[in-house]
């Protein structure tokens, strides 16, 4: 069974490439040759569904004419002509979807532009039952629209052919109907970011044995949820997010058999400890246990997760990084902010030369070792809110070695003059650095002249230090500077310089 969107563009290309009259004819008649036109009964159902929606941004402007298979968001079976797909995801949700749910800074400029699409969505008081007439629907996506806190209608649970159901960020409320457990063909289920009532029982999940993707991230209204007796029996489950749903350690057993997981997000639940069988998760590439009340050393049971690329452990109370950590050769993103790790930056990170983002902020680190400059792939480095008093590698040597760094935050430490360094930065062809924060330290020196080499710098925060003397003329080269904080220093003549670009 195939799903077909519009084939007009594809045909136009064929015509251009092949320039053959017969092909042109086929294209002109593509609706008869390549698929059956939509069935009138199903077209009527879609018309009725459209009538139940408020579409102030004209998302459904293509929904006219006889062949509903050509309407935007509709996919038909190319043999029977039945509507098999209804994809009304908003452009905004679609735009951001491919990215991992990481920290905000991982967003690219393109993804920031997604926000501009936020005004395009559909609204309705409920999901109209005309959908039931689309008996052959396998793919239903209503994410991002607004259903005014109405419950998911019971009839969805009878749409037995569904393989893909996404109702996330769609303003649903009430209890989650437990007959969703009847959708035994589901491979993909997203109910994230809604306002379901906390007493919704989700034990029906155990009936969905074909699930590969389950996203319940912040599905509830408030976090006072008491999940009991949850089991998950989906041997092919790869993606699981139960973030911020009041999951507790007693529920963790539900995951004991889901060893095929690649993406596991349990952040903002009350776990307190990690069971030993966590070592069964050998395929994990993404693990988020931020804010789970974990403490002590990072558990040895993570050792088997050697494919891990994204590891989010912020806002726990971990106090050390074990030496076996270097086995995580693929690790690219490590977030450990708001923990309780003391002393020098752990040697376990020494050979992690693949690491691209490292957040060690809000711990109690006191020094940065000399090997640190070998982490040359770093793009994002946050060491702020620690107790750093010394750096065996100076800030300029970090910048000299890490040519791809975009953000360097060393603010809110106790560093002095010696840590600034005066290495020439010209070993990098160019510097990507956009954000530099050295604020609230004890830097008692002239402003470093190397600042002028950071030609992509957009934000520079030097406030609350003891910098003195004139502002170097090299600052004039910082053509992209948008935000500059210099307050509470002893700099001269700042007001005399004209900042054409500020
Ligand atoms: C229908 O689509 C499927 C999958 O794309 C394809 O394999 C099949 O050949 C198509 N059938 C027709 C009649 O076009
Ligand atoms: C398209 O199909 C119709 C009816 O099947 C036929 O009358 C018409 O000539 C066809 N057009 C072309 C360009 O082949
Ligand atoms: C479905 O939508 C149609 C068209 O707006 C409306 O007449 C009908 O009452 C709706 N049905 C329900 C159950 O809301
Ligand atoms: C659907 O779910 C309901 C409630 O969970 C249940 O009572 C009913 O028997 C199920 N129907 C089928 C066909 O499985
Ligand atoms: C959750 O439910 C269990 C069993 O009913 C009960 O013992 C426990 O106190 C409840 N916890 C909360 C936070 O309501
Ligand atoms: C959980 O299981 C226990 C024991 O089987 C049972 O008494 C209890 O009612 C169940 N709770 C829910 C919410 O299903
Ligand atoms: C895990 O699988 C085993 C073997 O199939 C089964 O006995 C056990 O009950 C399962 N555990 C959970 C929590 O589903
Ligand atoms: C890693 O996996 C092996 C093989 O399944 C297992 O014996 C071992 O206990 C696991 N290690 C940890 C630390 O969980
Ligand atoms: C890192 O690699 C160097 C050179 O291979 C080695 O001497 C050192 O022990 C390694 N450090 C760690 C923590 O594995």
Automatic annotation (TrEMBL):
It comes from the Eukaryota. It is a single-pass type I membrane protein. Residues 40-77 form the Leucine-rich repeat-containing N-terminal plant-type domain. GO terms for cellular component: plasma membrane. This is Uncharacterized protein. It is found in: Cell membrane. SMART domains: LRR_SD22, LRR_TYP. Keywords: Cell membrane, Glycoprotein, Leucine-rich repeat, Membrane, Receptor, Repeat, Signal, Transmembrane, Transmembrane helix. It holds the Pfam family LRRNT_2. Residues 279-493 form the Disease resistance R13L4/SHOC-2-like LRR domain. Belongs to the RLP family. Residues 1-28 form the signal peptide. Its main location: membrane.
